[in-house]
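Hi Q.,

Before the meeting this afternoon, I wanted you to have the 3-phosphoglyceric acid prediction in hand. No need to reply - just skim if you have a minute. The sequence and ligand are here:
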Amino acid sequence: MTGFEPILPVVVIDDARDAEALGRALLAGGIHQAEITLRTPAALSALRALAGMPGLRVGVGTVLEPEQAEAAIDAGATFVVSPGLSESVLAVCERRGVQAVPGAVTATEVMRARSLGLRTLKFFPAESSGGPAALSALSSVFPDLAFVPTGGIDASRAADYLALPSVIAVGGSWMVPRAAIAAGDFTGVEALCRTAVEAAR
Ligand code: 3PG
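Predicted structure with the ligand bound:
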């Protein structure tokens, strides 16, 4: 059902030429997965470069339209994350055999996703939607669902989410700051990744 490690970096990358150094920093920091968000023109090229790196599982994020899912899967994405639920995006994922992880934050949204067969959901935006307490209450009535809380989480909060039995991974950009990537500070990214992995133990 899952296939996720506990820490899911949510990457916003401005220059695809930084992708391989980023991938090496993730791996050196003990992280073997990344969600590349479609928020920059460089995202698809970066995704393609990262998907070609052995040992790294790469997905796509901020997927709003089915065409974006198609293009990202063509580029090597093995999971597709969306802020909310789009049936047309789900249809692409189903046809292509790629895991979809749509966002849901209310019981009604969760029930809708569940009724469509989904069992792993993104709890987004996590911090402003009530944080671990809200997710704990929500997931207590959906024992067959797994959640990836994302949005506003940082190193100090990750363990609180991961302590919940329903949480299989915590997503966030705190260990891959956009500015650090753009500045070429991959030593810093590696250190942040290592700290995040340690906090998840
Ligand atoms: C997402 O795309 O999932 C979030 O915007 C990432 O959240 P963060 O940048 O607040 O960690």
